[in-house]
UniProtKB/TrEMBL annotation:
It comes from Amycolatopsis marina. It comes from the Bacteria. This is Nucleoside-diphosphate-sugar epimerase. Residues 9-212 form the NAD-dependent epimerase/dehydratase domain. It holds the Pfam family Epimerase. InterPro entries: Epimerase_deHydtase, Lipid_A_modif_metabolic_enz, NAD(P)-bd_dom_sf.
Length: 314
């Protein structure tokens, strides 16, 4: 793949934005697409406003693409309704342009299967609506590849954290309180191991899948450090900041901070993730591509620095 091949990134949330930064940093041609106007794109990155839920808009937004990165998310309560259409439109556009599709995915398809050691071989055992939806969409992507219609590669991530990540269990409901001496939110049993994926490692991993064919037709776990308990992560944050953290623990899905009633009503079926161990193993990706996760302390330090700047300007 040459530096003139066009990489089109769909979605301007923290993942899409991080993917764009990673691709641009590699000197690649990048177009960034979102429903809303995109501001502050890296120098040289083309921006395009489009609603990918409309088939013709998806085709136009991805014109001339060599690789399409699917990092679109929608409001949590609309995912079951909206995401199948978006997936179909992306696959249709990719087939039209003979482009490869790289999909950012979650751990939802696994459900409650083998939470202590989740690998790419773990059974897809989801019973939740959103978990079964993700599994169905993932099979579509894999079937598109196996049929020869569209080349696909999929990267799965645990819960995000990192610069720009707000709507996460290790995001805006936690770090501002941890930095200012106010209460900081945590979910469920925080003594259990729980995987968190650093957003810049996610971006690097997806960019790697987009620039090589060695990952095509497969699901990969993006580089993520071995799971610690959330309490252990809190201790690292306390050590970095020099401040004790007052934890406000949610043991059930109810509104809190950035997580409103509508979101939490939909999230209730996924709350099992905070009642059982969740250790996502990424050694297959690491050994295949030679890319390893950022050391956790370094990643948390970067995140804390970003939140300090964020709090200073808000």
């Amino acid at each position: 793949m040459s530096s003139t091949d066009l990489h089109v990134v769909l979605g301007a949330g923290p993942a899409g934005t991080a993917i764009v930064a990673e691709l641009a940093g590699r000197g690649l041609a990048v177009r960034h697409v979102d429903r809303e106007t995109i501001n502050g794109a890296p120098t040289g990155v083309e921006t395009h406003q489009a609603d990918i839920s409309r088939p013709e808009a998806a085709i136009a937004a991805t014109d001339a693409a060599s690789v399409i990165y699917h990092a679109i998310n929608v409001a949590y309560h609309r995912q079951v309704e909206a995401m199948p259409t978006i997936a179909n439109n992306i696959l249709t556009a990719a087939e039209r342009h003979d482009a490869k599709v790289v999909v950012l995915d979650t751990l939802y398809p696994y459900g409650e299967a083998d939470g202590e050691h989740i690998t790419e071989a773990t059974t897809w055992a989801a019973t939740s609506r959103k978990g079964k939806l993700r599994a169905e969409l993932d099979r579509r992507y894999l079937d598109a590849h196996s049929s020869g219609a569209v080349r696909t590669a999929m990267g799965r991530s645990a819960d995000f954290f990192g610069p720009g990540v707000l709507n996460s269990t290790l995001g805006a409901a936690f770090f501002p309180g941890a930095l200012t001496g106010q209460s900081a939110l945590a979910f469920g049993d925080i003594q259990l191991p729980h995987s968190y994926s650093y957003i810049r490692d996610i971006a690097r991993g997806l960019a790697t899948l987009g620039t090589t064919d060695r990952g095509d037709g497969k699901v990969w776990h993006l580089p993520t450090v071995p799971a610690l308990s959330t309490t252990e992560i809190h201790r690292i944050v306390e050590d970095i900041t020099g401040k004790p953290i007052e934890v406000d623990l949610l043991t059930e899905a109810k509104p809190y901070g950035p997580f409103d009633e509508t979101f939490m009503a939909e999230y209730a079926e996924m709350f099992y993730q905070h009642r059982i161990p969740q250790n996502m193993v990424s050694t297959a990706f690491e050994s295949t591509f030679g890319q390893h996760p950022t050391p956790l302390r370094d990643a948390l330090h970067d995140t804390i620095d970003w939140y300090r700047e964020y709090l200073a300007r808000t």
